[in-house]
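In the current project phase, the collection of sequences with tokenised folds has grown. One resulting record follows, to show the layout:
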Amino acid sequence: MQLELISFKLCPFVQRSVITLKHKGVPFDTTFIQLNDPPAWFDEVSPLGKVPVLKVDGEVLFESAVINEFLDESFGERMLSANTLERAQQRAWIELGSAGIMAMFGAITAAEESASAAKRAELAKLFGHLEKHLAKQPPAPFFAGKTLSLVDTSFAPLFQRLFALPESLLDWNAIPTVMRWGERLADEPVIRDSLPEGFDDLFPMMLKKQNGWYAQQYLAD
């Protein structure tokens, strides 16, 4: 099976699939594009105009959650529960992780302080729900137990970006179980290795280019 992952270098949704591929030891090729100036062929393979896109022997899959479930069903040990209720619950938490990524980016790219604060409050509310869940069922050490799950792969890029910010968007003291889980994920070798080369420089550079309120306050030269 020939796999080609179409990627924007800093996209956390792409990184979800990179983690899954690396964890399962599946070989794949990567084609990088610029989302603000995509090649002409990109519109044909990405109906929503987003990455990741996975080509499987030339056939196209889009949306990170769909791609990850395909990879999970096709290669190696399963990363979602075999129990139908638990699997549905895990999918729901993956959706919350997606909402968290969007809230984070809204907070760090908003032009006005008020809009940034609103997105920060949205992120705090989402993570408050996550804290309540994890406090009852603490990661051991991963979301579903001893092995990496698709919930872990979905949240890990969000944690890496939150931890990379010079000024925290969250009161980590209010969500200690979430923080410990995030730190454990950030230390996992396959997750560290999934970051694009030069991430520590590229991520703040991207935020400065966006020139939102957060970057003006905390990323000034």
In short: Strands lie at 3-7, 29-32, 53-56, 59-62. The chain has a mean pLDDT of 96.
